[in-house]
């Protein structure tokens, strides 16, 4: 499945969450990730994510699409992809 | 078209951008918006957005899907929708 994941995580926990998400997905903007994941891998990611989050304060939104071609992406301004490779 | 818009905007400009995006889309997380827009309305939004942005520093990513049903959305943790109505 094609995944877009966006998070809003308190700064005390955001470093851990960034590290976790980058193990599964591509980092495309400050708090936005995308990529292909199987259902099993997505469940695994969300399981780990929940253990990092304060569920009464933080949030994650996941958009899933069965096929990437059903979505078009347009970037305006700075592309983080380039930065990602340098980090 | 169904739109997901995510931005990463310097704090000096983010207030203006938030106000702009909320005129066109639903605010669902800190820097994430979704909704239905015609192609013309999307162009209009992006035209205004570019006039606010510093294109060498800020970024906007727009995902478009011809049909909302091609995307599933899952929210984990706090749902901002509820907050949005109160603001």
Automatic annotation (TrEMBL), chains A, B:
PANTHER family: CRISPR-ASSOCIATED ENDORIBONUCLEASE CAS2. Pfam families: CRISPR_Cas2. It is an enzyme of class 3 (hydrolase). Homodimer, forms a heterotetramer with a Cas1 homodimer. The keyword Metal-binding applies. Keywords: Antiviral defense, Endonuclease, Hydrolase, Magnesium, Metal-binding, Nuclease. Its cofactor is Mg(2+). Coiled coil: none annotated. This is CRISPR-associated endoribonuclease Cas2. CRISPR (clustered regularly interspaced short palindromic repeat), is an adaptive immune system that provides protection against mobile genetic elements (viruses, transposable elements and conjugative plasmids). CRISPR clusters contain sequences complementary to antecedent mobile elements and target invading nucleic acids. CRISPR clusters are transcribed and processed into CRISPR RNA (crRNA). Functions as a ssRNA-specific endoribonuclease. Involved in the integration of spacer DNA into the CRISPR cassette. Mg(2+) binds at residue 8. One of its GO terms (molecular function) is endonuclease activity. Belongs to the CRISPR-associated endoribonuclease Cas2 protein family. Its EC number is 3.1.-.-. InterPro entries: CRISPR_associated_Cas2 (IPR021127), Virulence_VapD/CRISPR_Cas2 (IPR019199).
């Amino acid at each position: 499945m094609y995944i877009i994941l966006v998070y809003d995580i308190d700064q005390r926990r955001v470093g851990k969450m960034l590290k976790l998400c980058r193990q599964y997905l591509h980092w495309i903007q400050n708090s936005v990730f995308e990529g292909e994941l199987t259902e099993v891998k997505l469940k695994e990611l969300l399981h780990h994510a929940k253990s990092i989050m304060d569920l009464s304060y933080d949030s994650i939104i996941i958009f899933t699409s069965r096929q990437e071609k059903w979505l078009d992406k347009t970037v305006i301004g700075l592309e983080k992809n380039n930065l990602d490779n340098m980090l």
